Amino acid sequence: MIILTWTYIIVGITFSLYLSIAWLSRVKTTKGFYVAGAGVSPLANGMATAADWLSAASFISIAGLISFMGYSGSIYLLGWTGGYVLLALLLAPYLRKFGKFTVPDFIGDRYYSDTARFVALLCAIFVSFTYIAGQMRGVGIIFSRFLEVDVNTGVLIGMAIIFFYVSLGGMKGITYTQVAQCLVLIVAYLVPAIAISLKITGSFAPQIGFGSTIADGPNTGKYLLDILNQLNTDLGFAEYTKPFGHGGKPMLDVFCSTMALMVGTAGLPHIIIRFYTVTSVAAARLSAGYALLFIAIFYTTAPAVASFARYNMINTISGIEYAKAPVWFKNWEKTGLIAWLDKNQNGVIEYHKGDPFAGRPTFTGEKGSHGQELISNTPADGVNELYIDNDIIVLANPEIAQLPPWVIALVAAGALAAALSTASGLLLVISSAISHDLYYRLINRSASEKQRLLVGRIMIGAALFVAGYFGINPPGFVAEVVALAFGLAASSFFPVIVLGIFSKRTTREGAICGMITGICFTIYYIVNIKFMSGSAWLLGISAEGIGTVGMLLNFVVTMLVSLMTAAPPPEVQAMVENIRFPRGTGSNIDR
Amino acid sequence: MKKDLRRYWRKNLSLMAVLLFIWALVSYGFGIIFVDQLNTIRIAGFPLGFWFAQQGSIYVFVILIFVYHFRMKKIDREFDVHE
Description:
The structure holds two protein chains of two kinds. Chain A is mostly helical. Chain A has a domain at 2-312 and 403-476: Sodium/glucose cotransporter (Up-down Bundle), CATH 1.20.1730.10. Chain A has helices spanning 2-24, 30-35, 42-53, 56-69, 74-98, 103-110, 114-147, 151-201, 206-209, 224-235, 251-267, 269-272, 281-317, 327-333, 392-395, 397-400, 405-443, 449-472, 478-491, 493-502, 508-530, 546-564, 570-579, and strands at residues 338-340, 363-367, 373-375, 386-388. The radius of gyration of chain A is 24 Å and the shape is globular. The mean pLDDT of chain A is 85. Chain B is elongated. The mean pLDDT of chain B is 92. Chains A and B meet through α5, α11 and α13 of A and α1, β2 and α3 of B.
């Protein structure tokens, strides 16, 4: 109960902070609504980008994922940070100089074509919806776990709060609430990580701690990573730090997956759009640096948390009698994130490689002879008896390390900040794609400022409604489609934006053919693997990595077709020339 | 003026090429392709390849962006195209 009280207090304080910021930064113009008046400071924009980027999935799942994947988990760490280098060097400064509102704006103008604008618009909407479905579910789950309400109620509360501050403040409201959310989520991630690092290794910095020696217990004086390799080997897993082979991804796939995630990151519309909000080209470069700085604090802590959690997890429960298992195990059993099936009836929790049973646990509601929650799933072959969900690594971490209740409440507030900030950024992209790119640019060029703002606000409501629907009735393939979102961003936007800036010769026909080839190939390959149980026929590259091939195809097709078609008109070439140097960045203009 | 802009653009491109080379070297080179060889070296408790894949590359990425920002600021002024 004390945890619940703390949660109400901390979540209450942070939420009133977000709502007051939204009220103070409410807007009246489309420029304020789409790009926060292009007056955001580099530091504020960097923090907002970081909050936009660090989603509920990152906050809750990433450490758990790495904990189970060991070295192979690096694809996420490298992919989701390295993309910012591409963004800062290849995209952000030039898009800021171009100075409009959205990604389809750039593609439509640079390729002097409404067809290109429309293709880009569809991609932006699809990528953003794919992403937001998972976020709304995340909001619901976090509310339900920490505030003890129903998941659907949680989704509804989240929808109401997001609608309030996104429709009121548009990009400006989002930006300044995201600054606050960035601080909340990073503090919430660091506090438990530091406490656990001190406990296990005696080192204050988790980043250094996970390479250090263990400070107490039977393994005192040995390197944590050595012990993890040893424990993993004993239980039948691959060594923690060992790359490739033995259940890990092969090198080519690690390479392609990392590349697809990096390029996909740089091509995500809700990240790109943030760089339209700063005052100048230099500010765009600098704010990409600040963004990555905050993201790096998070992503260098995550692998440390992953290894501490793996060590704690194996040490406190593997080979222990259920009767003597720690309290947190029994607390989290109720949520279905961890479950034990006593296959050999000896009362000992035996953890090995392999699935304990098929699918997620279904509890019968009865207790077994040792007091465990009984499960009705069919046992799988193999000796493993333990089911562990990735998410438990971060969620149960404070309890596993016996930290005080306010830390647990802080983690709840951090997870909510992560989910809300990402969801609001995505909603704005969807709303601006429809109200600006579709309604204003393609349907009604004479719409007044007031009409456009109204359409923007209605679209936020509509998009939120669709997102909320998916949150309450999850399609069951959210995890699968995330690969699709990155693959599509990598194979559609990135090549044509980069070529649009760095090659004046790239033509409308080239860009359209390139985008369509890249997208169709990537969709076909991923759908074939994920939904039609096809094989990874291309050199064993997985669905996560295929975006890299789609991107290369896009580059090649765009360049070839460009060479075969008439050069772009002189005014477009002049525009490309003009975005290559900083001077003369005006405020964002409409036409 | 036109010729100056071309030189400015070439300077920008060569700075980018150097930084992107380092970007690829630490992540794809040290963290993926040569990870096995580097893992035989151990620094501060980390196998070196593993460290590049989970820590080192990320620090280098941050530094690269700030280097680009400050170098470009100077180049912008040198060619008088700053704001």
